Each structure stands twice: as C-alpha cells, then as structure tokens.
Amino acid sequence: MLRHAILILSGNSFASLLLFARNIVVARLIPVEDYGIAATFAIAMAVVEMASQLGLHQLIVQARNGEDPRFQAALQGFQLLRGLLSGLLLAVLAGVLADFMNIPEVAWAYQVLALVPVLNALQHFDIHRLNRSMRFRPMILTGAVPAVLSLLAIWPLAAWLGDYRVMLGALLLQAASATITSHLVAEQPYRLVLDRAITRHALSFGWPLLVNGALLFAVYQGDRVIVGRELGMLELALFSMGVTVTLTPTLIMAKSLQNLFLPQLSQETDPRSDHHAALCQAVVQATLLSGAVLVPVVQIFGPWVITAALGDRYTALVPLLGLFAVQQGIRLLKNGPNLISLALGHSIDAMLANGVRVLFLPLAWILVVQGYGVVSLLLMGIVAELLGFALSIVLVLRRLELSLRPSWRPIALTLAMMAAATLSAVAPQAGLSRAADGAVLLLFAALSISSGLLYRHFRTSRG
Predict the structure, then answer these.
(1) Residue range 403-425: mean pLDDT, rounded
(2) Is the pLDDT of residue 260 over 70?
(3) Which residue ranges run through the membrane (predicted)?
(4) Distance from C-alpha of 205 to C-alpha of 56, rounded to nearest angstrom
(5) Which of 226, 352, 430, 437 is the most exposed place for a label (fewest CB within 10 A)?
(6) Least confident of 133-147, 152-166, 183-197
C-alpha cells in the first residue's frame, strides 16, 4: 500500500508542479495585467466544467460493473456528448463572460478556448478503469506528459506572442497531448456507445456532482470573479498567484487521496464491518495530515517562491500567503468524509458541504465593495470552509453510524493549528505572530504523532 501511495503522490506531484512552474514562468514573462487576463481563462473553463461535471471518472471506479467494456464505451460516448455541449456553451457565452470581467476585447480567446473541453472529452477511460486494480501509471502519464509539453512550449510562445495568448496556446497544447497520451497508454480498444440505461445510471450518480460542480465553481472561482470585477486585472493577477501557490499542493494531495482510497473504500462490501471502520478512520486522518501540512510548508517556502521566482512585482502577495494556506488547508479536510460517502454512492454529501461555502460569497462580495479588501474575502472563506467541514463530518456520521472517536484528537489538533496560523497572518504585533508560528509547528508535530490509525493502515495493507 505504501508503494502505491508513493507512486500516486509522486506522479500527481510531478504533473502539478510542472503546471505550477508553467504558471510561474508565464507570470514572469508577461506583464502583470496580462497574467490577470490569463487567469480569467481558468474562470471561463470552470464555467464549462460547472455545467457538465457528472463524475464519470469516479463512476467507472465506484461502479460494480466498471470492468464491463460496454459500460466503459457508454461512459466514453456520454463524455464526448457532454464535451461537445460544453464547448458549444463556452463559445456562445464568450462575449458575455468577457463583458462581465470588463475585458470585451478578449472574447475571441474564450471562443478558441472552447476547443479544450472537446479535446478533454475524447480521452480514453482506460486510465481511470485501471485504477480499480490499483494500476495508476497510465493515469499518471496522461497527466505528466502534457504538463512537460505545456511547460516547454512557454518560451517559444512567449517569444512569438508575448502576452496573455501564451497561456491560451499552452492550455490547447496540454488538452490535445493529454487526449493523445490517454489513447497511447490504453489497453482496451476505444469505443463509443450511447446506452440509455447506462446514461440514466450516470445521471442518477452524477446529478449531485453536477450541482456540486456549480458550487465548486463558486468556491474555486467566485473569489477570483469578485476580485477581477471589483478590483481589476492587477489585483486579480496577485490574487490568482496566491491561489496558484496554495491550490497546487492542495489539488495534488486531494487527487492522490482520491486515487488511493476510493478504490479501497469502493471494494468494501460491508460498510458496517470493523475493517471498513478502520479504513474510514485512516482516510479521515490522512486528509487531516494532508490539509495541516500545507500551512507550515507555505509559511516557510511560500515567500521564497514568490520573491525568487517572480521578483518584486508580486511582493504585495507575501503577507497574505498564510490566509491562503489556511483556507485551502481547511478545504482539503472535507475530502475525507466526502470520499467515504462517495464510495457508498452518496455523491450528494460533497454538494451539501460546498453549499455552505457558497452561502458566504454574497457577504464577501459586499465586504469587498465596501472597501475591506482581499483580507476580508479570505477570512470569510476560512469561516465558511470550517462550517462546511463540520457539516461533512455530521453527514458521514449519520450515513454510517460511524464513530470518529479515535480521530477526535487529530481533528482538534488540526483545527487548533489552523486557528494559530490565522492569528499569525493577521496579528498586528511581530512578537505575537512569531509565537503563533511556533504554536503551528508544535501542533503539527502533535498531530503527526496522534495519527496512529493511518500508520497502522499502511503497515497492515498489502502492496
């Protein structure tokens, strides 16, 4: 099991860090305001994913008939249909999105970007099916190869174009190469089928994930929309870089945890067994540790990354990195309970937990309009993520009648550490801030020691 965990984490880390490096290089090579425009491409793509996210990749892992070639072909056919509709949606909405962000001259770029969801929809689902038997290399290669090509393309694109179009070209190359790679590493022939029964099954499984996609758009992109619309492209560039620095490791850990634990949880036939209960405790403790480790890592290395990689243009971001890290770290905590529910086919729980975060967006928008700035936006996000985590815990406890008593201490230590990190970021006095930093490190050490059920799971599992 430890071997699989290392493979998944290293593979996902390699691809994500390459894409992180790509974003850093783009930010270095083009003007700051152009990077703000490039950041809106992520918002445009999120609109498309929001409207078409049905969790088909998770379904082929979770479903009992996931090895059936016809089932896979039907999912691939449904995926292509949704990709075509998503591309059409983005092409139609391009002008509306550009006007809303106060950059109407960029509408053509959103129309070109409409090719990306179509290319993504042509990927071969073998890379996800093979995860059922704990074979992760095809999926890892499909992420890593495009990331390498996308990074290498930045320098010639920058020499040729020199503005936000650099990111547009890199995104198109990444999508095309990912699709090609997924077919090269596949084992089964690529087939497309439209099956009404399987489509109904996919819709039944995926409609909460579709709603959750809309909520995730608000969660991941809502803050950027507020900053870009109300504060301008320069502030959006700084804010987007803060999200990039902290969201990259968050997504690495979230994806790795899902790849590692969802197949194990889905294979459990008796959700009331002692073995399943122990596995659930290990999943919760793994997400606590992964969310907690983000905070000291960003506190120690974040300022160096900003100043060394980007120079003086982004130094205004450094004091805010701690709040970005806390928000992303708490967001990651929800993955444990949500993974447990997803493995049982209850995809609605993630939707409900993210809904809490969305409810706070109007208040955050009002605070920004009233002049309270980005700090108020981040603090509102932290409070909302805490409430969402609490709800996700309540839902899984009620769903399984599971006792989290063995994990209450790690949960308490994690929340105390997040509180100390928030205090460090907003403390008006340097002495108080340093004391809070010390508390963060001590609490993280205590959390690491108290996560015994996670370590036991790795010792006793095969592989």
Answers:
(1) 87
(2) yes
(3) 37-60, 80-101, 107-127, 139-158, 198-220, 232-254, 304-326, 347-368, 374-396, 408-427, 439-458
(4) 9
(5) 430
(6) 133-147
Structure tokens, 248: 């990259």
* Residue 452: HSE in the Cβ half-sphere, 13 Å Cα cutoff: 5
- Phi, psi for 271 (deg, rounded to 5): -70, -5
Torsion, Cα of 453, 455, 460, 462 (10° steps): 130
Residues recorded for the chain: 463
Tell me what the mean pLDDT of segment 224-237 comes to: 81
**pLDDT band for position 453 (cuts 50, 70, 90):** confident
H or E, element range at 88: helix 69-100
Q: How far apart are CA 25 and CA 20, in angstroms?
A: 9
Q: How high is the pLDDT of residue 270?
A: 66
Question: Is residue 320 within 8 Å of 378, Cβ to Cβ?
Answer: yes
Give mean pLDDT, residues 77-95: 84
State residue 179's pLDDT score.
Answer: 93
CA dist 400 → 116, 138, 244 (Å): 39, 33, 36
Provide the token pair at 83: 């990709």
Query: Rounded to 10 degrees, what is the CA torsion of 126, 349, 362, 379?
Result: -90
Measured between alpha carbons, how far is 325 from 302 in angstroms, rounded to an integer?
Answer: 9
Residue 256 φ/ψ, nearest 5 degrees: -65, -40
Matching residue, tokens 């809070």 = 436
Prediction pTM value:
0.67
- CA 140, CA 463: separation in Å to the nearest integer? 18
| CA-CA-CA-CA torsion sign (398, 399, 403, 407) | negative
Count of alpha carbons within 13 Å of 212, Cβ hemisphere only? 19
For residue 141, how many other CB atoms are within 10 A of its CB?
18
Other C-beta atoms closer than 10 Å to the C-beta of 463 total 10
Secondary structure class of 151 (helix, strand, coil): helix
The CA distances from residue 445 to 44, 291, 410, 439, 450, in Å, are 40, 14, 11, 10, 9
Q: Band the pLDDT of 418: cuts 50, 70, 90.
A: very high
Residue type at 26 in one-letter notation: V
Which stretches of 360-429 are DSSP H helices? 361-369, 373-400, 408-426
DSSP letters spanning 331-363:
HHHTHHHHHHHHHTT-THHHHHHHHHHHHTHHH
